[in-house]
Amino acid sequence: MAKSNSFSCTSCGATHSRWSGRCDACGEWNTIVEEAPLSTGPKGKSLGGKRGSFLTLTDLSTEETPPPRTLSGIGELDRVLGGGLVPSSAVLVGGDPGIGKSTLLLQAAARFAAAGLKTFYISGEEASAQVRMRAQRLGLGEAPVKLAAATSLRDILTTLEAERPDLVIIDSIQTVWSDTVEAAPGSVSQVRAAAHELTSFAKRSNTSVILVGHVTKDGQIAGPRVVEHMVDCVLYFEGERGHQFRILRSVKNRFGPADEIGVFEMTGAGLAEVSNPSALFLSGRGTPSPGSVVFSGIEGTRPLLVEMQALVAPTPHSQPRRAVVGWDGARLAMILAVLEARCGIPFAGLDVYLNVAGGLKISEPAADLAVAAALLSAREDTALPADTVVFGEISLSGALRPVGQTENRLKEAQKLGFTAAITPSGGKPGGDSGLKLTHMGDLTAFVGDIFGAG
C-alpha cells in the first residue's frame, strides 16, 4: 500500500494532497511543506495524519479575572463553595442516605432561584409530588424552581439544551442512565458516562451542574473515582444520626480552598446554618471531668474548638480494646506507643475509648497533644482546668512540633472565654492573644508539669 503523505501551507495552514509551488488558498509561493503524521498505528486506533487546530498559548504572567460568583445567601454553603457558585462549574455532593443532601440542595435551589438564576431540579429517586411536599414543609412552595422527575440522560440533555438554565441539580447521578451504555443504572460504566456528558454540557453551555452521589459503606462516593476528577468541586456531607449537627466538607475545589467546612443544624424547618460552630460543639460541655480536653483546631480557613473525650478502664479481656470515633485509629495507636516508650506510661491491660464530641471528624496532626492529654487525664483520673485549650503535634521521638495558624487558634479560644493554652515550643509566640501560654518542648516535660509524673 502506498504511503499517504500530507502537505500544508506554512502561511495559511491549508492542507493539500500533493506538493505544489504555489498555495491555491492564499497564493503564496514556496510555502507548502510535507507534514509528518500525528501518530502511527493501526487504522482506527491512532490519530493518523489529519491535523488539528492550533492552540492559543499564553504566558504564565497573563492575568485572568476571577470568575464571577453568585451567592446563595446560605453563608455556610457559600463558604464551602469558595465564595459562591461559579458559572459552568460541576459540583459533586456525597453523603449517607438521609443525611440531608436533598434538603440542603432544595433550600439552595430556592435561594439561587430567588437570586435570579434559572434553576432546574431534576429528581431521579423521588416523584415530583414528593419533592413538592418537601418544599412545602420547608416553606419553599412559592420558590421559582422548575422541577422534573427523569432518569434518561438523553431526555435530560435534550431538555437542558432547549431551556438553557443557569443551574441544574441532578438528584442523583446513580439513577441516570444512558441508552448507549449496555449496563444497569448505577453501574460504574453508567455513572462515568452520565457524569462525563453532564460535565461537558456544563462547560459548553455556561450552566452550573450539581450532582448528588451515593456513598459506599466506607464513606466514599460510589462509582469510579474518575468522577471526582471530572468535576470542579467535591463536597462530602458528614454527620451522625444521633446528632443534630451536619458538616459539609470540601475535599476538592478548583475555585477556592479545599478542606473548608460548613456547619449546619438539622431543625424541623430544614437545615439551619451555624455561624459560630465552636460555641455549638462546646455547648454540651459541663463541669470539667477526667478525660475531657478542649482542642483548638483548624478546618480549612476556620478555627474550630471541639472537645476530645477519653475513657481508660481495666479490661476483662485478654486483648484490650481500642475504640475511636471521629479520629484516626492508627494515630491513636502511635500516641499510645510514644507514651509508653518515651514517658514510661503503659496502657497494657487497659481499654481505651476516644471520642470527638459533636460528631466532627478531626484529621490534622495538631490534635496529637490534646489526645495525649485526654488519655493521661482519664488514666490518672485528673481533670485539666476548664479554661485551657491544648494543641500540638507529637513526633515519634516524643518531641512536640509546632503547628500552623497558632494565632488564629488562640484568638478563637480567647473569643470563647478561655484564658490559658498549652502549646509546643518553637512556634509563633501569640503573646497578643490575651491567653496565658504554657510552652512545652517534649512529651516528657508535658507529663511531668501537667500531671506530676514522667
UniProtKB/TrEMBL annotation:
GO MF, one annotated term: ATP-dependent DNA damage sensor activity
Gene Ontology cellular-component terms listed: cytosol
Motif placement: RadA KNRFG motif: 252-256
Occurrences of domain RecA family profile (ranges): 66-215
Transmembrane segments: none
Family note: Belongs to the RecA family. RadA subfamily.
Protein name: DNA repair protein RadA
